[in-house]
């Protein structure tokens, strides 16, 4: 009987976690253009930034705190298109790191660039 109570308590706890966490899921609108092999990051204010890859130098943002969420095109990425990039926010700046492929060789170079988000708002 003691094990049954523990099992029922554990099941109730798992069920309550499953029910409450599903409320946090949000469906976002489609990005205005196809995006594959790009990158994205979210800042401390709940704004998601995505771009590069098959989108070329395009960057978009969406504010998760707004009631009506729409993707907004922002300043293009300087220096040309990049694929398979990685991005992160640090001190309110978006840092983009990428691996650049040179003429079908495996000569990869790591680069970075900072895009100040204050100029995009």
Automatic annotation (TrEMBL):
<dbReference type="Pfam" id="PF24996">
    <property type="entry name" value="NANM"/>
</dbReference>
<dbReference type="InterPro" id="IPR015915">
    <property type="entry name" value="Kelch-typ_b-propeller"/>
</dbReference>
<keyword id="KW-0413">Isomerase</keyword>
<feature type="signal peptide">
    <location>
        <begin position="1"/>
        <end position="25"/>
    </location>
</feature>
<keyword id="KW-0732">Signal</keyword>
<dbReference type="InterPro" id="IPR056734">
    <property type="entry name" value="NANM"/>
</dbReference>
<dbReference type="GO" id="GO:0016853">
    <property type="term" value="F:isomerase activity"/>
</dbReference>
<protein>
    <submittedName>
        <fullName>N-acetylneuraminic acid mutarotase</fullName>
        <ecNumber>5.1.3.24</ecNumber>
    </submittedName>
</protein>
């Amino acid at each position: 009987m003691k094990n049954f109570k523990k099992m029922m308590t554990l099941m109730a706890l798992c069920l309550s976690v499953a029910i409450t966490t599903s409320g946090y899921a949000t469906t976002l609108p489609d990005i205005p253009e196809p995006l594959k092999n790009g990158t994205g990051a979210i800042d401390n204010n709940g704004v998601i930034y995505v771009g590069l890859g098959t989108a070329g130098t395009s960057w978009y943002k969406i504010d998760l705190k707004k009631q009506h969420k729409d993707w907004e095109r922002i300043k293009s990425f300087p220096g040309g298109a990049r694929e398979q990039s990685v991005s992160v926010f640090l001190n309110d700046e978006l840092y983009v790191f990428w691996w650049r492929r040179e003429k079908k060789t495996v000569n990869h170079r790591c680069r970075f660039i900072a895009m100040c988000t204050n100029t995009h708002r």
